[in-house]
Amino acid sequence: MPSFCTKGKGILWVCVSSQIREYRARLSSCMDPVNQVVLTPTYTKRTPLIFGSPLMTSTQKPIQRGKLFLITLGHFWIDSYANIQPALLPLVILQMDLSLTLAGILASVFSLSSSLTQTVMGYLADRMRVRYFVVLGLLFSAVFICSIGLASDYWTLLVILALGGLGISAFHPQTVTMAGEISGSHRGLGVSLFVAGGTAGYALSPYWITVLVSEYSIDILPYAAIPGIVTVGLLMWLVPMAKEPHEHAPSFTIREAFQGRLRPIMLLTSTVIARSVTRLGMMAFLPIMLTSQGMTLVDGGKALTTFTFLGAIGSLVGGTLSDRIGRRMIITLSMVGSGPLLYAALQSEGGLFFLLLGLGGFMLFLADAVVVATAQELAPERAAIASSMVMGFGWGIGGLAVMAVGGLSDAIGIPATLSGVALIPVVGAVCCFGLPKDSVAPYFPEPAIDSTDPEKPSEKIAQR
Fold it and tell me: Angle 368-378/327-346 helices, nearest 10 degrees?
């Protein structure tokens, strides 16, 4: 854990430092040398569709550290709860004597409720911006997901997972927006810390939850909800819950939100779907495959933690590299590079299996932050619904496919099924060629030249 935190901070600092230097250089190029004010960029209908958003102001606002820490802590716990179900699925199958098809339905229902509904939650967050989404989302996920062991039958378990998934869906769109709002002029740093908190919780939970359940029993699981409930109390106490007057956004339709940008948004969503089928399929059935081969529940948890831990690092690295080599390049590398590594992992065993699995997770998660950033850059005025459309809808459709993965596993076996699932991103990489070409740094339009200014145009161009 200390090693992970140190490495994570190092990666994050390199990313943030480079961005600060780049923004300062860009800012100085947009300054009027006489009055020392920022020249506001002029936009026209001919402004190209390009990844990256312009710098609009030089006013520096500090990060509200206490509030950012609390919502990051909430993100840590809610993503920890989100990864409990895959880790404990082998135990649930054993206790309820489920087929792989029924197990796949469990995974699909949880994925649909936690992902597909994020589009609706993002829409409501952009229109209403009610901060109760944060509190109720974390409370629902903590209480219901940690009640898996209390389910007496399959249908009760389905309802519990669906309600827990809805809590996850409600939490994410609003808190991503909050993280940016309370980060002041350091939005990139604030959102990066927020995302890092969630990925840390997501990566670590399969290991500690399987150790906890193996040491005691699944009856101990409700006690795991305590940290989340305590965090809910802190959020209600310290983070304003009331809707402020300026927070009520005007109504809009989905077509208006993506006007002129629907094609790249849909292609981007298609890349997420392809990667999500592989990710969710591996996470749902890899622990089951390992336990069927004689490994323990904790070994399955270790495999998931390896997969998601290196995936979390990959997400941070991908976000950093995308500013250097471009968004589309990172997405393409993730799609093409992850499949062969995961396929090779499934054909290996021992230490080589864990190494290839971790590298495959690193490549698969490489584009996670990039696709969110790309979606928000394509529709910056509707950032919450854009990110929830890409990630929520993409993950939801990927979750539906997990039912088919379960049925196919019953028919031909888990190893053969997962070998095919691992290669899906390679096929989906064709969608990357339809994405808009991007710049390797945030785009700053040229300031307009005032034709009435007595100063020579050539001199003004030189000043820029």
Answer: 150
Residue linked to tokens 């600092």: 13
Question: d(Cα 367, Cα 311) in Å, to the nearest integer?
Answer: 10
The architecture (CATH level 2) of 65-243+254-437 comes to Up-down Bundle (1.20)
> What is the per-residue pLDDT across 155-189, written as a single tens digit (0 to 9) for each?
999 999 999 999 998 888 777 777 777 777 666 56
Q: What is the DSSP letter of 436?
A: P
Give domain limits for the chain: 65-243+254-437
The gap between the terminal CA atoms of the chain, to the nearest Å, is 47
* Both structure tokens of 79: 């993503």
Q: What is the pLDDT of residue 40?
A: 39
Three-class SS state of 207: helix
pLDDT at 337: 92
Q: Is-contact 146 222, C-beta < 8 A?
A: yes
Please give the pLDDT value at position 338. 92
* Cβ atoms of residues 180 and 267 within 8 Å: no
CA separation for the pair 199, 11 (Å, rounded): 14
Structural element, H or E, at residue 348: none
d(CA 22, CA 25) in angstroms, rounded, equals 5
Residue 31's DSSP bridge partners are: 38
**For the chain, which ranges sit under pLDDT 50?**
1-58, 244-249, 439-464
Report the interhelical angle of 100-111 vs 394-412 (nearest 10°).
Answer: 180
The label of the residue with tokens 């840390």 reads: 200
> Which pLDDT belongs to residue 434?
73
For 102, half-sphere exposure in the C-beta direction (CA atoms, 13 angstrom radius) is: 13
